[in-house]
Amino acid sequence: MSDELLIVRCRLGERDAFAELVRAWHGAVEGYVRRMLGGPDDDVVQEVWLAVFNGLPKLREPGRFAPWLFTIARRAVMNRLREAYARPEPEPAEEPAGPDEIGPIADREVLGAALDALPVREREVLLLFHLQDLPLDACAQICGVPVGTVKSRLARARRLLREQLERKEYEV
């Protein structure tokens, strides 16, 4: 069923329609939040869905649901990041050195660490464009910047990611 039809059903008060909407988009929202915050955060994901539930009656264009949803998710992530930056940093704990693991798990860890090392703005456009498969104009709308800015951030993000991976001696 299309998102537009689900939104209309939600506006008519059908609880099953909202549950179906959440089922359809929960993985994408959860993945975006996890990648932006460097780990899972169920509170932020719940915050997003609460804002979606409260905001659905005000959504003017149901056909633009995805950009609207990720705008809400972005706002929740930025609020969490602001809170995190306001807290003092804990002392780093020493980790025991172990043998390097090779294989798909190590590849994901290297890529995840490289993504985490990117500045938030660049990481955000990279995630929205490549992992959420959103078009440039939707990314621009979500980030609240012109399309040209998204393009330059995307180019910088790719360059920085490549540099991060090369530093880790990972073939790009």
TrEMBL record:
InterPro entries: RNA_pol_sigma-70-like, RNA_pol_sigma-70_dom, RNA_pol_sigma70_r2, RNA_pol_sigma70_r4_t2, RNA_pol_sigma_r2, RNA_pol_sigma_r3/r4-like, WH-like_DNA-bd_sf. This is RNA polymerase sigma factor. It comes from the Bacteria. Belongs to the sigma-70 factor family. ECF subfamily. Keywords: DNA-binding, Sigma factor, Transcription, Transcription regulation. It holds the Pfam family Sigma70_r4_2. Residues 21-84 form the RNA polymerase sigma-70 region domain.
